[in-house]
Amino acid sequence: MLAIRLQRTGRKGHAMFRVVVQDSRRTPTSGKIVARLGTYDPHSKTVTLDNEKASFYLANGAQPSPRVVGLLKAEGVTLPSWVAVSDKKSGTIRNPEKLRRNRPKEVATAEAETVTEELAAASTESTAAEA
């Protein structure tokens, strides 16, 4: 099965990526690729793609990686209906009851009252010690 994925190039600390079509059983770093579709620079966010080649391989069953799906979608390549497009903004929060904004109000006000009482007691002790 063919996969459309990113192949890392570039020097250490300054990655550049090639968008390649490759056999899915190979690792992305092995040099054997079927076709090179374009490049992606994550630093300047520039993408150069051959849209015709990309749509050809997608029509023939090549599976794009999730990152490549986002790049293809941004470049205007029509994706087949079987490609899963993830929407990052529709993610769910795992433990919403642990969020500070979801705590009951009386717990927060009770904590605030105890802190202010402790501060007031400390300030009266320090003024008594000075006198």
Give me the CATH architecture of the largest domain, please: 2-Layer Sandwich
Helix content: 25-40%
The helix count comes to: 3
What spatial form do the alpha-carbon principal axes imply? Answer: elongated
Number of domains: 2
| Alpha-carbon distance between the two ends | 84 Å
Strand order of the largest sheet: 4-3-2-1-5
Series of secondary-structure elements, N-terminal to C-terminal: EEEEHEHH
Average per-residue pLDDT, rounded, comes to 84
Give me some keywords for this one.
about 130 residues, alpha+beta, S16 Ribosomal Protein, Chain: A, 2 domains, five-stranded mixed β-sheet, 3 helices, elongated
Account of the protein in words:
It is a single chain. The chain is 34% helix and 25% strand. By secondary structure, the chain is an alpha+beta fold. The chain folds into two domains: 2-86, Ribosomal protein S16 (S16 Ribosomal Protein, Chain: A, 2-Layer Sandwich), CATH 3.30.1320; 96-130. A five-stranded mixed β-sheet has the order 4-3-2-1-5. The protein is elongated and about 80 Å long. The mean pLDDT is 84.
